[in-house]
Amino acid sequence: MAGYVVQRLGLMLVTLLAIVTLTFFLMHAVPGGPFTSEKMLQPEIQAALNAKYHLDDPLWLQYLNYIKGVVTLDLGPSFKYAGMSVNQIIMEGLPVTAKVGFFALICVVALGVPLGVVAALNRNRWPDTLVMVIATIGVAVPSYVIATIALYVFALRLGWVPTFGLDDWRGYFLPVFALSGFWISFIARLARSSLLETLDQDYMTTAKAKGLKPGQVLFKHGLRNSLIPVVTVLGPVVANLLTGSFVIEQIFALPGIGRHFVLSITNRDYTAIMGITIFYAAVLMVMIFIVDMLYLVLDPRIKYGARGK
């Protein structure tokens, strides 16, 4: 087990180094520079800015300096926000993004899994049909369409919630609804199909034949095994929700990481683009690692580090 953990951590570091390298060279391959869009910028001023941020250094030296900064958790200064570092930009947007993402995650788990279970237990009956119709719509309709419609109906027409911002608790409703809608539907469909497959297994028939109560059969033998595919998907889902949705944060004017990322692309803030990309990749890898560890809890038959694993 310890050897597997060390191996996974090593692979995570190699993967992160590859992402840092690819992101760095892709940003430097883009025509122009971070100060190209500035109007009426004199050559002397641009040369001074390049010297200040070491953009006139050889590319290999810039790369080594950036790797050194990433190792020390310093993602560099922002090219567009004077006196701010990329670390500060991320820490400024992270609380908003994490709070909205956390509420969305609660909705995904609390609604997606139960809906899938209800649909599976009522196969080919009206609850199953109703859940699948709603889930299909939720998967098919993009989140920005859901956000736009919800904003028009509940904020502009009915006035139940504010149109933007998080000034009070009502401001969380529409962003959380738009952010979690797709994943609730996806998890419901996945939980249903996985539970249906589990219910058809021989050991489920054996458990029923032994006289176990339906609740014991469902929760002890059915759900525990059928949740493994759901947990597999929840790793990237958690990373996605906790790092924000670029479109949703733009629509509702939330000062989160996603909105900062969009603005950094618009402003050609290369260090912010690279830093936020690396941050997202790191969160995603950590969540996938946690999911792999949860497999041991859900299915003790899984043994990491054994031969052939």
TrEMBL record:
Mind telling me which PROSITE patterns this protein's record contains? ABC_TM1
The record places domain ABC transmembrane type-1 at 94-295
Location in the cell reads: Cell membrane
Q: How does the UniProt record describe the way this protein sits in the membrane? A: Multi-pass membrane protein
Which domain of life, per UniProt?
Bacteria
The UniProt entry lists the main location of this chain as membrane
Pfam families attached to this UniProt entry: BPD_transp_1, BPD_transp_1_N
Q: Which BP terms in the Gene Ontology apply to this protein?
A: transmembrane transport
Question: Which residue windows are transmembrane per the record?
Answer: 9-30, 100-121, 133-160, 172-191, 227-252, 272-298
**What InterPro entries does the entry give?**
BPD_transp_1_N (IPR045621), MetI-like (IPR000515), MetI-like_sf (IPR035906)
Q: Which UniProt keywords apply?
A: Cell membrane, Membrane, Transmembrane, Transmembrane helix, Transport
Taken from the UniProt entry, a GO cellular component term is: plasma membrane
Entry similarity comment: Belongs to the binding-protein-dependent transport system permease family.
This protein's name: ABC transporter permease
What organism does the UniProt record list as the source? Paradevosia shaoguanensis
Query: What is the phylogenetic placement of the source species in the record?
Result: Bacteria, Pseudomonadati, Pseudomonadota, Alphaproteobacteria, Hyphomicrobiales
